[in-house]
Design goal:
CATH class of the largest domain in chain A: Mainly Alpha
Order of helices and strands of chain A: HHHHHHHHH
CATH topology of the largest domain in chain A: Tetracycline Repressor, domain 2
Oligomer: homotetramer
Structural class of chain A: mainly alpha
CATH superfamily of the largest domain in chain A: Tetracycline Repressor, domain 2
Number of strands of chain A: 0
Helix content of chain A: 55-70%
Distance between the termini of chain A: 60 Å
Strand content of chain A: under 5%
Largest interface: A-B, 62 and 62 residues
Number of helices of chain A: 9
DNA sequence: AATGAATGAGATTTCATTCAT
DNA sequence: AATGAATGAAATCTCATTCAT
């Protein structure tokens, strides 16, 4: 009576991962039960364990694979770009595009880190740090060359990533805006946001802000 | 952090709310058990029900109260400011300050909406919409007056809020930067980010971006 | 609707322990399910956890309490007996009596040690060692005084305890023999078994046995 | 102890039986999973069923084969011995030797009877009864001839077997004592234990023990 | 207002077993 | 004879919630 219902063979793991991403995105890791997951895949709950070792491991695999992909594809997107302005524009375009096409994975990788156990958490945070470092380096280079101005590299790095990542909380395919319009909107905000203030008509003179960019944590 | 065991009277609810905020922040709503919560407060799980009606209601109360506070205090911060630039600067300063002082409540109100049941979710999202609307209006006004330039009001609104809210994922009191430095760093990014590009040395000319700001969802 | 069925209040733990002893005796620790145990007590499986912390802890408590009782009562039974022969007779009578009245606890404490986790196992084995040591000391004293003769103290200790403990695999109340007859049968075997061979008509001359008693492990 | 992975052919069953004995000895039948067993053998769990029919049958086979061996070899050991004293000495030597060389099988056959289902249990208990009967007959003969004295044949039979069998709970090859010393120690206890008290200096006169040996259950 | 004990549902995980390949 | 994937039942344990005291 085995294998007469539901998903079969080597495709089952892929089905589990796909359904897992969707359910974790919709309900959260803690709120997703393996019974639900199995039902989505069309197998019994216990059968999941022919393909995953634990629920925690499934989460870790999904998150880790996503961050690896993100890093790899970012490096492709930045390849051959030397100018910090071009690099930043490419970064924004890549990040926005990636987040539009894989917003569920992105969301999970940002919001479910808390559910990773200590060891897995450390691995993923290290990978995420590498991603952030790409942006921090672009900003550092641009500041050195005088084409960017930021109050603090670290804060700017986190803020820009948060700004771009926010996309995946509201984006839905087929919405009001085209892909290009969304990219353009973010490009304007980011590139303008790090532009040297000297070039602007005294916009930001309210508080006694430090004017020099400082790096480091 | 131990408290009077068997906490009595009108303070118990406050202890529950405080411990609830911390536990939900640290573990998430689904992952926090009422037994843990009760243990933190120093009472038995069953005794919680003398003060709250359900776990869901506790979450709703915490989130709703937070967003109400946020809105009320924002309006105080904006009071008397008519110039969009001044308003935006005040918005940023307020938002950053508030997020530094109440980062756990902020985090919960952003990340645990998913755990609200349908009715509660609608209430909270409406309140959040009101908050976003304050910023959208500032941007609209600034664009009208020609002191701001954004590709899309809606996108800019979400992006700026995401940028500012990102703070509460990394901020820790006693860190490297002063409160003023953190505010200044965000002010620069936001105000510069919405500055008219005409004022800039052709920074953002990469894609054929639409130049007109459009409102609506 | 709480507490309308099954066992109540402070007596529940006692009911759990009693039913636990019976079920573990009949089926073994691994084979006893907490569902069965709960059913015997008349509560739901989850309700067990208001009284025990884990299944393992229940076993440990039962075994440990039993061995503590055993030791305490043995010391009472030996009190005031100085002569090794009298002591050994008292030991046998006590052990047999105890095993007849609490044969299930005895059986569990002997056969389910394997199911204790490492830490609990060590505790129990230490207690059991103390019990064995009482007998080993009696034998050592008797050998010194020349009233006992054994080939090896250690082997004799284990063998006598095994001999006596075997009782609980076949004893049933109301059987063919009276309590006194059973005690007498074991007394004869044990006391005779350690009697000096010189007193016997060359019974045990088959193998080239060492004649001296050696202690130690 | 690793074996050729994917063990083939007629040796696989033997590997299963050997690993089964070890695992059941170490963890108990209930606690041994067929997955563990298969892993030890180097095959998948499902492949076990090419060699055994059920887990229960594996246990039954192991126990039954052991008891058959025991009986067969006992009869060889007793062959040609007519004198009850010689027979008892041979019984002890055989039993002890056998238990030292096959202590795991012995242990299983004693402690896992409980896990046999009703039909299998009856078969095994009948075989065990035959073994016990050999000893009971020796004792009966010895008592008739006046060379043994026991209070009760049945009790003595069980007690002697328990005494001897206890060996397999502490024996480890390479321990402090030689094989001969261990045999001698047990011989002394048993033969002395059933020696007529008349031959002893009034050792066992404590309780008003019946002096006549009675048979029957 | 707090407790302690109960419920019933449901969580993750393991199990013996089956069977097409 | 072995595999890999499936089943369905059952395991221990946790959970939010209730309520008599």
């Amino acid at each position: 009576m085995a294998r007469t219902i539901g998903s079969h063979g080597p495709t089952t793991l892929e089905a589990i991962r796909k359904a897992g991403v969707r359910l974790i995105f919709e309900r959260g890791y803690e709120a997703m039960s393996l019974r639900q997951l199995a039902a989505e895949v069309g197998i019994q709950a216990g059968s999941l364990y022919n393909h995953i070792s634990t629920k925690q491991d499934l989460l870790f695999d999904l998150v880790q694979e996503h961050i690896n992909d993100l890093l790899r594809e970012l490096d492709l997107a930045l390849e051959g770009k030397a100018d910090p302005v071009e690099q930043l524009r490419a970064f924004v375009a890549f990040h926005v595009t990636y987040h539009m096409t894989r917003k569920r994975e992105v969301f999970i990788a940002n919001s479910e880190l808390r559910s990773l156990d200590a060891k897995n958490y450390d691995v993923v945070v290290a990978l995420r740090g590498a991603y952030e470092q790409r942006l921090a380096q672009i900003l550092t280079d641009g500041v050195s060359e005088g084409v960017f101005e930021v109050v603090d590299i670290q804060v700017a790095t986190f803020a820009i990533i948060a700004l771009l990542t926010g996309l995946c909380t509201w984006y839905r395919p087929g919405g009001r805006l085209t892909r290009d319009a969304i990219i353009a909107a973010h490009e304007k905000l980011v590139l303008s946001g790090v532009a040297p203030q000297a070039a602007l008509g005294r916009v930001g003179s309210g508080s006694k802000s430090p004017r020099t960019a400082v790096a480091g944590s």
